[in-house]
Amino acid sequence: MQKRTRIPKWLKWEFWPYRIFYIPVYFLIVVHAIRARTLSYFTLSNPGMKMGGFASYSKYDILSQLPSSLIPKTILFTEIPSTDFLLAKMQTASIIFPVILKPDEGERGWKVEKISNEGEVRKYLSDAPQRMILQEYIDLPEEYGIMYYRFPQEKKGNISSVMKREFLTVTGDGTSTLLELFQQSERGHYYLARLSLKFKNELGTVLPEGEVKMLEEIGNHNRGTAFLDAHELINEQLLQVFDETSSSLKEFYFGRYDVRTQSYEELLRGNFKVMEVNGANSEPTHIYDPDMSLMKAYRDLFHHWKTMFRISMQNRKRGFKAASMPELYRAIQSHLREKKEHPNEF
What is the torsion angle, in degrees rounded to the nearest 10, for the CA atoms of residue 289, residue 295, residue 296 and residue 298? Predict the structure, then answer.
């Protein structure tokens, strides 16, 4: 097999650390902060969420506002449970393995894991977040990120971004080992160390020709999932679906729905499950499409932040108050601590 020329990871901006990628955006945020006379202006974007959904908000609380038909079976633990207690709760709720365990407060895939058995439960609980969510695993093939916003004085909203997740996989050729398939993969080779550890007992396995192996079922960019720009899927029917969905959320105007569905057609029919609803910390994740130009990504990201500023200022006129600077400082400090303690999960 002819070896393909590989672009170094540092030259692909989709992999840049966000603190570097966001430098131009920080200047825009400062301009907005001067106009708003507070750096925490964006916490006004969703008065119904703690800090507008920027940080320290409960994923469980906002999911609980949605119709039960739209969300997975979910259990909230406000303190780290014992394995036996967690298993008993699963049995009571008629939830079977596999399940998803994740923090009730967290972002960028921090400590989100698919758990398949009791042994993995014990391992997860040995270093679990204090508040955590257990969700039934939704085994549907397509996952989307839908960026939705609505101005407070308007009844109809807008969809500014649709991202389709393409999970990291390799396809067998009947001769290459799993390790060789990782090395040959256009995307997988960037995650070689992680994959080699995860599949350490299978590296010598040869997949039959045409067999597709899923390498990561958690749809986070930092675990190899490709975020594909699917703006062509935006239409009035999709907007109507998410206008109706958003109507059940209290004072929600700006955020991203992460959903799983059988197909785009089923999504348009309202047949999907909402995995998460993010607020002011949302990104229009289509910008991380591997083929997206850097200038187009910044253009869309600037539009995103300008929209959030406009919504926030309208909510302030309605009488809502932004989070205090001490609150914002504590939230940022907490986020930085998580990054320091778990650098490979962000």
Answer: 90
